[in-house]
Design a protein that fits this description.
Distance between the termini: 48 Å
Radius of gyration: 23 Å
Number of strands: 16
Helix content: 40-55%
Number of helices: 15
Structural class: alpha/beta
Length: 426
Amino acid sequence: MTAIDTQVVDYVHDIARRARVASRELALLTRAQKDAALTALAEALEAAAPQVVAANQEDLDRERAGGMAEGLLDRLTLTPERVRAVAQALRDVAALPDPVGEVVRGSTLANGLTIRQVRVPMGVVGMIYEARPNVTVDAAGLGLKSGNAVILRGGSAAGRTNETLVGILRDALVAQGLPADAINLLSEGGRDAGRALMTARGLVDLVIPRGGASLIQTVVTESTVPVIETGVGNCHVYVDAGAELGTALAITINSKTHRPSVCNAAESLLVHQDVAADFLPKALAELAGAGVVLHTDERAGQYAEAAGVAHDTVTQEHFATEFLALEMSVAVVDDLDGALAHVQQYTSGHTEAIVTEDRAAARRWVNEVDAAAVMVNASTRFTDGGEFGFGAEIGISTQKLHARGPMALPELTTTKWVVEGDGQTR
């Protein structure tokens, strides 16, 4: 790793030190104080929606002129409706139970000592992410509710939008008598600022990357601060021999086309050979009609040709790709074992769905698929903190330590042991 500009390091470390001071104040807030602040942040965002949309349009115009793909432009876009949705997510977080102070477990020992494991804030949490301005608000809200100060390093594509959002949020905090440094944005320093953040061990307690495979891998390999890895979403829908084909069609179309630019959109369709002739012609035609580019194996390709659907030959690279666009790989498998083997080879560990009325097949899928979320007769699009009832989310963790799946408030806390006695000695 090349050296980081010392001026950038000083800039990031100064922000981290101020965030540390703010985090100590946040840790003392009651739930009522935090919920009132979250509501105030939501109201401030809604009031400033025209300002946010105008700043976002600057980013969109610049990135569209630079050739950004439509799927990524969709992620970058904030409409008035999306601003309202982001504000509502803050209210949803306010309505959730406060994890801080929760007793995870406890007991009284034989010697009279009482011990309790209690949830406490992490302290200072860094977020490194790409062109998703909604993440800016989600991270700020979840950080506040869990008693953490946040340092945000968003992608340059959303630079004006993020500056505007964070300015609004910081002003709203101050109006509530809270420290502005509870929410911080690294708006200078470029990529060096991100690298300084993830190596600020001792000043930053946790870094969470959210974005493409390259970003996540860089943070995981270069960070000296502990990392929770959020993963790429190479998600599959498997239509089993026991599937109700109408249900399978609806789930396939929704999983792929509802919002193809997000990590819980399906990228591959696997179909049991026993139902392929009945299912694939209609499914491929509907996918193509929705604008999906299809990459098919030999058997699926035959059904595409019979239905007059455009397609090309799938490659190993297609099977391994998170398209984040209206693109999908399609394969016919011999049986459930074939589907499981395919998923095992290509899954990113995010979300895997089976469509079947065969309870034994569903049990095998749930037990044998190694992913953060497994779906039975439901769209992959449901793997989401909001859909799970967590309010906003800070990411989908595909690792297995500390957090897995949609990460919300509990995952932004750690624990401490509180031991009380009456003078006991050992």
